[in-house]
Every structure is written in C-alpha cells, then in structure tokens.
Amino acid sequence: MEQKGIARKLDQHGRIVIPIEARQLLGWTAHTPIEIGRLGRYILLYTQGESDAKPIPVRENPVLRETEEMLGNLPDQDLLLVWEILHRLTKQQKGAE
Predict the structure, then answer these.
(1) Position 1 confidence tier, pLDDT thresholds 50, 70, 90
(2) What is d(CA 17, CA 8) in angstroms, rounded to the nearest whole number?
(3) Which of 28, 42, 46, 54 is most buried by its number of CB atoms within 10 A?
(4) Who contacts 25 (Cβ-Cβ below 8 Å, separation ≥6)?
(5) What is the DSSP string of 9-72?
(6) Where in the chain are the domains?
(7) Residue 74: is its pLDDT beyond 70?
(8) If 0-12 CB within 10 Å is exposed, 13-18 middle and 19+ buried, where does residue 58 land?
(9) Contact status, residue 29 vs residue 22, Cβ threshold 8 Å
(10) What is the pLDDT of residues 5-56, one digit of tens each?
(11) φ and ψ at 23, to 5 degrees?
C-alpha cells in the first residue's frame, strides 16, 4: 500500500478511523478481526491469524540480540522495509508447505 500521509486524531476514547480506501485495499469488512502489534515507534495492524509468530525473548538468543542491535540503528523507513520483506518471506514459506 502506498503511503498517503493521512492524519487522523484520536477521539475521546482513544479510537481512530481507518479510511475506507485502506480497508478496501486490505479486504477488511465491518467485522474483520484486527490484531495490533508494535515495531519500534510504529503500530502495525494486520488481520487476526495472519501472523502466527511467537515472541522469543531476545536475551535468550544471541542471534536475535545481534539482529536487534543492527536493526536498532536503521532509519524507520528501512526498518519497515525489512519487516515487510520478512513478512512476505514468511507467507511464501507457508505457501510452499
């Protein structure tokens, strides 16, 4: 999805409205369950069940610890690009099984 730079304000309950164009592009309808995740400063929204990744404590895995340190030095746009690439690779791998 291309970035459109749409700004939304939170209402008094802390809610935002996701524009209909974005919902249509993602195939989200009125009662689509959405999961909320976090990547650095960004909040990620994805269809519930789309990601079955389980969190692994970084301190218990030296490879993850080193990867987190390297990713922590990337600009935000590059970090989101890495996340998107990993997400697509995961989907491709699941499709091959």
Answers:
(1) very low
(2) 7
(3) 28
(4) 1
(5) ---TTS--PPPHHHHHHHT--TT--EEEEEETTEEEEEETTS-------GGG-HHHHHHHHHHT
(6) 20-96
(7) yes
(8) middle
(9) no
(10) 678 899 999 998 888 888 888 888 988 898 887 776 778 787 877 655 555 5
(11) -65, -40
